Input
Amino acid sequence: MENVSVPDGSLPVCNSSEDFYSLTSGNRSDLNCTVPSEFYLYADLYILIPIIYSVICAVGLTGNTAVIYVILKAPRMKTVTNMFILNLAIADDLFTLVLPINIAEHLLHHWPFGEVLCKVILSIDHYNIFSSISFLTVMSIDRYLVVLATVRSKRMPYRTYRAAKIISLCVWLLVILVVMPFTVFAGVYVNPHDERKSCVLSFPSPERLWFKASRIYTLILGFAIPVSTICILYTMMLYKLRNMRLNSNAKALDKAKKKVTIMVFIVLAVCLFCWTPFHLSTIVALTTDLTTTPLLIGISYFITSLSYANSCLNPFLYAFLDDSFRKAFKKMLECKPA
Output
């Protein structure tokens, strides 16, 4: 359904699934439409969403900061895999730091923070989409190389902590380049009807074409390519391990390497669980035309909250799946007398 003009000649009302998706996902584009006032009358959503976001912010900030502290302070934690986990935690921490601003905007129903902060917030919001899956892709490549070297009984002299630092820096720079178009288009839009300000992606005309292009861009670079790469790597990894057991007298992966590989796999699975609905909603927005209903509104906010929740889950996975992390966490919490 196309946008419907209101009788008084003000801006058209956001009424299609594409419009509402763009306004609730946190990755919003200016489609020259306004949210109907009755959307703000859903008291449950108005109260529940800030509570959920606040919990994600508090838990994510605490957990990821603890991960960063443990890796930086404990000498035994300075491994290649933990370097990638460190950068993943930094990216999640960065996102949770700005989440209170999203909460404030939700409660105020307008953007009072200015143009510069709008660009920063929307950039970090999009960075959250690309950074997690990028570092998980790198971690999967690293796991595949470790398995491959083990199967062939070869050493990996190039796999060093310093090399992991350089690769992590390259990932940061790559994601910055990917997010740059969103930074350019981010801006404050003032509704001429009620002068309400919104922090959105203000695309040039035709807005709908640019909106669809941005969603396809995000879907391909933030999901399709990295997830396909990861699936291929893990399929090849399992195939080689199976052949190693059946066709070779070589020893299986030692216990420590098995645990690290399993941890990376579970962290990846949780990431896909949290982000797949978000990217599926992109496909829905691009291919269907659903009328906005209270149910659709609730689903949209649930999908957004689920994707945000990924930023606070990883520290718990490390604590449960990795003995060294668990011991380091416990040591950090110990109160030692002066």
About this structure: Strands lie at 186-190, 197-201. The two ends are 68 Å apart (CA to CA).
